[in-house]
Write a structure and sequence with these properties.
The protein has 190 residues and is mostly helical. The protein has helices at residues 4-16, 21-29, 35-46, 63-71, 78-140, 144-189.
Length: 190
Amino acid sequence: MADTKIILETIKRMYDAGLDDRSVSSALDDLGLSEDEKSHLMSLAKGKVPAQKPAGTEPEIPRQAREAEEEFTVEIEPEEVHEKIAEKTAKKIREELRQREASEQFREATAQISLDKQREELERQSEKISDIHKKVSSLERIPGSDQQRIFDRLSKIEKDVAEIKGQNTALQDLLKKVIDVTRKLLTKSK
């Protein structure tokens, strides 16, 4: 297992670089540390003093892990540990950035589609309003004197219609009288 001092120094650098607990914990997973070891080391790196462990005791490592560690113990240079942790952390950060970028692109595409639909609807409404303005402006083009002339002609037509109506009523009355006289003559001649 890598030297605790080197790991603590690396964790401090990670915190100084602005990484959060989750990222640091994930990087420590790559070293094969248990949850207790990770939280203990992270607390130390933050300057917090965790509950005191008895002097001289290291975190408990399962027997099989100890045997495997003893069997395959390889001396790792401190710089190599820093580089491995930095590589794995950078890889995870790049992946998260790619995911965030894809998510942002999706949001932008969705917003663009929504904006395009709204723009099309506004264009349709604008065309309708433009058509209404054209119709209203064509009505306003009639000059005042023409409007008066049209009004005068309508008044004259109204008078003519009233006169024709009166004549029609008089003609109907006359026809009724003719029919009555004709009926009387026919009944007398029989």
